[in-house]
Amino acid sequence: MSKVILVVDDSASVRQVVGIALRGAGYTVVEASDGKDALSKLDNQQKISLVISDVNMPNMDGISFVKEMKQKANYKFTPVIMLTTEGAEDKKQEGKAAGAKAWIVKPFRPEQLLQTVSMLI
């Protein structure tokens, strides 16, 4: 039974690159295009073991999404990796406060991402 990872990014190409790396490492991947889409995936999916989310997205940004997700009893302790072009320290602090466990700045190396995933999952 492979672990399920939710990848939330408004860029289809980023979701694709992340998805290829994760699937290659044996994970099951569920994709969402923004925070609202991601919340709907949490409710009707198998248990998600980890979330990788962008910060800047339309409809609902990554930090708002993480805050909402952490309100759900089933996802209170689900680890979150923020994968974003945002490198600003205040954004990182905001992400941490919302519940993100790791922060990876794009462009990223797939092996760096997989290493972070395996530490958290």
Structure description:
- The chain contains 5 helices and 5 strands.
- With 121 residues, it is of the alpha/beta class.
- The protein has a 5-stranded parallel sheet with strand order 2-1-3-4-5, sandwiched between helices.
- The mean pLDDT is 95.
- What is the β-strand count? 5
How far from one another are the termini?
14 Å
Helix content: 40-55%
Instruction: Categorize the overall geometry.
Output: globular
Mean pLDDT: 95
Rg on CA atoms, Å: 13 Å
**Beta-strand share of residues:** 15-25%
User: For the largest beta sheet, what order do the strands appear in spatially?
Assistant: 2-1-3-4-5
Secondary-structure-based class equals alpha/beta
- What's the assembly state of these chains? single chain
Low-confidence stretches: none
Largest sheet: 5 strands, parallel
Please write the string of helix (H) and strand (E) elements: EHEHEHEHEH
- Tally of alpha and pi helices: 5
